[in-house]
Amino acid sequence: MKRMILMAALVAGPALAQDDMVFDDSIVGQCVQAAADAGAAEACIGKAADDCMTRNPGGESTYGMNFCIGQEAAVWDGLLNAEYQRVMASDKEIDAQTKADGYGAPELAPALKAMQRAWIAYRDTTCTYEASQWGGGTGAGPAYAGCMMRLTAMQTLYLRDTGPF
Amino acid sequence: MNIRLFIALGLIAGPVWAAEDTPEELRAACFEMSAMMGQLAPCAGEAAQVCLEAKTGSANKGASAAVMAECFAPEAEWWDQKATAEYERVLADFQKMNAADQSEAVKAFHAAWLTYRDAKCDVAIAGFGLGAGSNLPVIICRMNESAEHAVYLSVRGK
């Protein structure tokens, strides 16, 4: 029985810790909204993860960092998706108008799609490169997660600055 | 002194004095300052601005897209070469250390970056229309992206 309890505790440990950890998913959105320009918005990157690492016991352990950074990365990923859809919808409208007007301008929507596809490969290889610099060390996990969060946020802010406003 | 010669010398000396540094020196200083700060300082394109002032008397007025392209193209080229040089330096360092994982990682990263840069800069020109007269937005986009990549490699490649 004692052994079973011990085993159960070992198995449940990380799951419990994750359930207990608090992440405020309103920080990123509020910070970006309040930012006056792209430079100020860049300062929002990492704020929610920092808050999570500070307010949770064990938040600064490798496990805690992975959790907190992963949570913030997920928030940015949602924002990025929304920005991409917004710009894509606008690009398609402009392309249709350009075609109707008879201009021979290169289309915007396929260029945006190609860029986003190239960005995904760029993001993954950048973060693999950054993680590789930790060798096999425990820092590689948080380094990869932090890189994904940073690049996803940067791409969100780049698309956010792309018209229409 | 002959007044005409004086004016002529003044005119010639003017921009040289204002610029003081050659475009090469301005760009190298920008790269070094950025590497020290750990991120691209807002100085990419400075040499192109000096070039515009020399051509038009003002960096912000009266320059046609063609003249701007003449000034920005050499700077975009310089940063492109800097990015390549930094990549080759980083790769050579990893290879010297027999760091196979890092070597492969930086190769894949640099190749993906190049594809991404060109795709991103295509977005800059899309919608402008054929015969818009200049690919200036592409030139400036490539300059900025290459500068950022060169500085990134110099900071993260040590």
Automatic annotation (TrEMBL), chain B:
Alphabetically ordered keywords of this record: Signal
Species of the source: Donghicola mangrovi
Signal sequence extent: 1-18
InterPro entries the record matches: LprI-like_N (IPR009739)
Keyword hit for Signal: yes
Domain Lysozyme inhibitor LprI-like N-terminal positions: 61-139
Protein name per UniProt: DUF1311 domain-containing protein
